[in-house]
Amino acid sequence: MSSPTRTTAGPLTRTRDATDAPHALHAPHAASPHAYDVGLLLLRVVLGLTMAAHGGQKLFGWFGGGGIDGTASFFTMSGYPNGKALAVVAGLTETFGGLGLALGLLTPLAGAAVVGTMVNALAVKGFGGFFAPTGIEYELLLAAGAAALALTGPGRLAADRYLPWVKSHRLAYGVAALALGLLIAAITLLLRN
Predict the structure, then answer these.
(1) First-to-last CA distance in the chain?
(2) How far is it between the farthest Cα atoms of the chain?
(3) DSSP helix/strand/coil, 5
(4) pLDDT of 16-32, one tens digit each?
């Protein structure tokens, strides 16, 4: 095993040994790529399954949710036209967006789907305060986490790694997906009375 060779070039340190790629640049405090992948996996699974469970509440009444009819009544009461159709769309978006994040499948689009639904949730809830029970911190945290995943990508422990067209995540994919999600959220909000 060779000993590490270090040269300093500004704030970054160049490290080369048997475990690093040749000429890899690392900040002295940087985590290993495996640490990033495991951290992204944890974030994806928790955030994704939380959103999928919310979708299950809307679609099937699971976990004490209102199901289609209860969610439709809520959407109608909140000023959206055709509450039943919107309940189905919101439930499917949360379910499939959440599952996509959990699996790391089409991550930029899955993250954008979650961001779009959370933008609508924030608008309906209003900005009366930050903390629970009437605050927006929960919805804001879910939206920020989903946006972060759309921008960073899912890491290597994800289904996207096996899809040729998204195998290598690009920031542009995340930005474009988030722009699409925000556009759809804005159109949905414009339908609201």
Answers:
(1) 69
(2) 69
(3) strand
(4) 444 444 444 555 677 78
